[in-house]
């Protein structure tokens, strides 16, 4: 039986494992194994909500092991460290517990087809002091750490000469913009849980962007609108501001200014994990992404596919497929088809990226963005309730891909019930 190994159970990899498990694993036509370094999955675009405390990672994440059982694939808890292409084996790191003790030694797993779906990490562009003084939103653990530190700062308000909590966010892409708004929303919630002395004037968020405008990938009118919304909330939006160093006091800018901050979040671009740069002699680009052909097979090895943020896939008219959840979702569907075709000795097909537009949620305050459609023959500006509905439906699409329509509907109902039963904010 052919062995299909998928490394990385995120927006793309988990959908792919689920599809292949249901189509091939169920009938014993292939042995599918998903490898991830974490025990649970949380859809990455929700991380800014975990950071702000509006989402409880413990409740909203999914157990890989339970999901694997329900969808006829195996799950292996381990981190990939290398690939031996000659022997078609992947190498897995030792499994280390949180206290540093070794749970399992290094191991290996053989494959006939390998799919790399490891995602990305924040790119600090080697800026001085960033790794020591900034928090990245690359994983639920990091988002939870930020939330914990934020709650500590609220506890200190009014005590220990702390009169204001200041947060600097570097990078005004969707992550930075959404987090800025979410922090004000969570502060409003916090004040109703025993922090009555706190109001929104106690929080200062500085959003720092090197480019001309916030949300650089979106049309001018949408970024302009989001900019105005952030100003209304009280966010100090700094465009054309280049950060040269991060220190324990805040951010130093190219013009020599210090933007003071108690906490700094770095969200200024992505790269694939560093160890991919030289992995198994495969072709990579300057941000460590594996270069793939239009079929999503890596350029030097047809038995290895790459999808999502760790893949560099050229668009026919120039540019590259953007590192977004919708790209990972679409790539997972194509690779599922191509793997099934290969097993039937049929030809593989090319990936065609479809841009459905971009939406940015300014927490409960507003949602803005543009949708691409055949009807409009281009992009159509959307905002308010319609935009919010479409924004939420992106996550629902991911849930439907994992659980099907019936279970997703039930989960939506449970979420509504939880909104009544549980606090609106994670308070610990
Ligand atoms: C705060 C935030 C908000 C975002 N908002 C949006 C949005 O609104 N819309 C949108 O389209 N995109 C958004 N994105 C981008 C989106 O999350 C990514 O493009 C998408 O998750 C990429 O999917 P992926 O499958 O490539 O990787 P991921 O979803 O990141 O999954 C990668 C998986 O690989 C695992 N892994 C990593 N290294 C190893 C290893 N060595 N061994 C084993 N497993 C490993 C990880 O544990 C993880 O489970 C956002 C990102 C962030 C951080």
TrEMBL record:
The keyword Secreted does not apply. Its cofactor is FAD. The keyword Flavoprotein applies. Keywords: FAD, Flavoprotein, Oxidoreductase. Residues 2-332 form the FAD/NAD(P)-binding domain. InterPro entries: FAD/NAD-bd_sf (IPR036188), FAD/NAD-binding_dom (IPR023753), NADH-Q_oxidoreductase (IPR051169). It holds the Pfam family Pyr_redox_2. Belongs to the NADH dehydrogenase family. This is NADH dehydrogenase.
